[in-house]
Structure prediction request, 135 residues.
Amino acid sequence: MFSVSLIIPIFMGCVAWALAAGASPENSIHENFLSLLGLGISFVAIISLPIPYVFRWDWKTKYFGAGMLSLSSASIIGIYPVLCIAQYSSLPALIRFAPLFIEGLLITKWCLRFVSLYKKIYSEKKFSTLFISKN
Prediction:
C-alpha cells in the first residue's frame, strides 16, 4: 500500500513544480522556492519507494498508517495554487495571506478527520481484532 500510494506525492510534486514555474517564469529554478519544494516532494517520494521492501513490510494493518502519510500529500493540490498567489501576486498582503491561512486550516481539518477516524477504528476492540493479525 505504501509504495502504491507514493504515486500521489510524485504526481502532486510535479504538478506543484509546474504551477510554481508557471506562476513565476522569470525566476530560475534556483530562485523559485515553491518550484524546488515541489521537486523535493517528488524526489523524497521516489527515494521512499524501496522502504517497504527493505524493511519487509507486509499487508498487516500496522503498516497502513505509512500509506496514509503518502495519501495525505494529495492536499498539496489544494495548497499550492494559494501558495503561488501568496508568493507571486501583487495584491496587498492581507488579501494574499488570508486565503492561504484559511486554506491551511481547511486542509489541516481535512487531514485530522482521517486521523480521528483511524484512531476510532483502532480503539474499538471489535474492530481491532478484525484488522490486526496475531503473529
The radius of gyration is 18 Å. Helices lie at 2-5, 7-23, 33-48, 51-54, 64-72, 76-88, 93-123, 125-131. Residues 2-131 form one domain. The mean pLDDT is 81.
